[in-house]
Amino acid sequence: MIVHLTREEEDALDEKHGQSISMAYKILLSIGKATNAERLIPVDWVHLSGVNYNTIGEAGVNFLTKYSQEARFVVPTTINPMGYDSQKQTKLSNNFKRQQGEIVKAYEKMGSIPSFSCIPYEIFQLPDREHNVSFAESNAAVMANSVFGLLTNKESSLSALASAVTGKAPYSDLRINRIRNPKIKIKVETELNTELDYGVLGYFSGKSVKESCVSFGDYTSNIDMYKTKSLAAALGTSGACGMFSNKVINGESISFGKEEAKSVMDELNTTESGDVIALGSPQLGMYELNLLSDMIGDKKFSKKCMIFCPRSIYEKASNSGIAQRLENAGANLICDACTCLSPLLTHEEYDGAITNSVKAAHYLNKSNGVSVCLDDLRSIIKEHTK
Description:
- The protein is built from 15 helices and 14 strands.
- Helix 6 crosses helix 9 (225-238), helix 8 (195-208) crosses helix 10 (258-268) and helix 11 crosses helix 13.
- Strand 2, helix 3 and strand 3 (77-79) form a beta-alpha-beta unit.
- The protein is α/β, with parallel strands linked by helices and 386 residues long.
- The N and C termini lie far apart (62 Å).
């Protein structure tokens, strides 16, 4: 497939506007060819991953530092969580903090909005429905497509960076309306009650579905934000599927029952308990913080508890008194970071973590080397507060 470029895009590719823009167009062109895109189209917003030093390492820092000398973002660009809360004291090494600071400096130099959040849809006024965006964060991409009616593929950190610099993206996959119509459905044959149930459904579906869009039918019609985020994050974590729909279809179906749910739990639920509670993957918004506060009431956590949320959400929670109630209960509210690949959760310090997030369980088990006790939020609060 030949990607047809405009004269202006060809000039940019030929380094007539600088090396950084040329590199960005080369990335988009390669992706366009691989995804059978006929052309590049404008995007209105970009959300970048590749912000946590744990995910990109020293090579990533060196690349971003050099790239930011010339590159500038031409559309509003928000960025994912980094590795820690820079306004709180931690035991992290000076090298980690220094390298993390270089990443932040590079993104700020290019013109990013310092959101440090994986839930931009909860803290910013995003473009209207049917507008094209470029989202690299897996849960954010799935939520953008499925809930907010935006058009994005599941971008990589590099492809989204290229879109931020050029304001363009390949016209392919979930940017094409016919591909957003699901051809396969998950036939749910077990009861779904909690956010964990929906996370398990999402994780199974991501591993099972090879299409870009899947239908859950009525099971996603009237669920709350917490269950929706849990479903989207798990779906985006375990496979290539970038969108779910509640359209009722008569096409091919895959069954999801007790046996399928058990297979996911057998894979991710690797310990019976843990020495730290970790909540916030995706980061918690006001809905979840309020829910958590109501569940705890006057009780206190009996174990160490980390709650990850965006700083702007924390400020709102502080103004309403919710943050203070959670902190009085013993929780440590951590801003600008999340549980995934966090240097704050390591096997050197923790034998096991308790969480209700299937996405967190995936990364804690496979990347952090921390065993996971998976349970729903209400059960965690019941079991670990007094």
